[in-house]
Amino acid sequence: MTDSKQPVLLQVELTQYGWTLKEGATPHELFISKDKAVRRLKERQKALKAGGRASDVVITSQQDPPRGGQAKWRARGAV
Q1: With b meaning 16 or more CB within 10 Å and e meaning fewer, what string describes 21-38?
Q2: Confidence (pLDDT) at 67
Q3: How many CB atoms lie under 10 A from the CB of residue 16?
């Protein structure tokens, strides 16, 4: 049973596959960009607040990873 007085930990974390949104230790969604993950996190925060729950937020990186290598790969594949 979860304690409704304990804040829910919402975390946006950079993985090798993209940005993931976690609630507690459970991953929920995977996003290509940090901005999209943070938008979804804010939506989840609002829903928790509407239900009377508090949340703590953790974001593990300040920048999106460079995508230059992936763009070059796509260009080579198109030739």
Answers
A1: bbbeeeeeeebeebebbb
A2: 54
A3: 5
